[in-house]
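Query structure, 276 tokens:
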């Protein structure tokens, strides 16, 4: 099957793009196909052209992915955004909207899942949020939706935007049903490169918040994985940043990973202390 060629900027085929900003972004990616830009360069271009904030630019990239395949590929040590072609993951490049019935069901608690504020008591506006964002493979199923106030929703998007360059790795890891598996698959996707601790926390908690995600990460050693940790102090802020990586791993066990971890954990196999 012949792949549909990419349209030239300004082509009538680009009527699928809704705003001038999307057209400017497409033209920039099109012109840089031989030298794909980093997210930093994309943000700088739209900032210079439109005066747009970084969070808006990140959303433009996600919107463009409704129509075009734009993976973040590691090239010369940096993640660069490559405009490859029309997407085949969505029919006609359009998202299926959430039905009114589903929206009403998600918003029925009338309480923000993050801050706990309510429309009646705090005059906040509630919106439907995807726990796992669509661009990381999240679905419109009810289990992936939650009520958030507009402020928390905006803050979450801005926070997740910091990890746009890791989209492909997150998407690969997000589908695993167990936190150990999500953490492990994420680090495997980085192929021996360092993974920020903040990103591991996000992926571990995609389905349900994992307060003990650090322990789950360390427990991979019980499965025969070779795991390294690095702590670095940022010169600008003085903050200690932690990163992890795996240099060797074993296949996942049959059945439950958590059960196998418990079975191999020496602390669970100690003989009880003698009675006095």
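Result returned for the query:
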């Amino acid at each position: 099957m012949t792949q549909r060629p990419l349209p030239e900027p300004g082509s009538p085929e680009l009527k699928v793009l809704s705003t001038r900003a999307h057209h400017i972004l497409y033209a920039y990616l099109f012109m840089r196909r031989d030298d794909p830009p980093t997210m930093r360069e994309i943000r700088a271009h739209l900032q210079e052209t439109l005066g747009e904030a970084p969070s808006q630019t990140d959303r433009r990239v996600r919107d463009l992915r409704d129509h075009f395949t734009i993976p973040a590929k590691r090239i010369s040590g940096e993640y660069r955004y490559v405009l490859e072609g029309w997407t085949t993951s969505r029919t006609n490049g359009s998202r299926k909207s959430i039905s009114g019935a589903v929206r009403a069901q998600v918003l029925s608690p009338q309480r923000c899942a993050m801050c706990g504020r309510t429309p009646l008591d705090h005059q906040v506006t509630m919106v439907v949020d995807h726990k796992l964002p669509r661009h990381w493979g999240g679905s419109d199923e009810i289990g992936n939706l939650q009520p958030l106030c507009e402020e928390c929703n905006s803050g979450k998007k801005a926070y997740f935007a910091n990890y746009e360059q890791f989209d492909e790795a997150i998407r690969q890891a997000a589908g695993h049903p167990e936190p150990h598996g999500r953490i492990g698959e994420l680090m495997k996707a980085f192929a021996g490169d360092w993974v920020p601790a903040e990103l591991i926390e996000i992926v571990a908690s995609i389905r349900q918040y994992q307060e003990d995600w650090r322990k789950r990460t360390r427990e991979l050693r019980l499965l025969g994985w070779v795991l390294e940790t690095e702590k670095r102090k940022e010169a600008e802020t003085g903050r200690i940043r932690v990163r992890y990586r795996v240099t060797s791993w074993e296949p996942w066990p049959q059945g439950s990973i958590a059960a196998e971890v418990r079975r191999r954990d020496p602390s669970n196999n100690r003989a009880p202390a003698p009675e006095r």
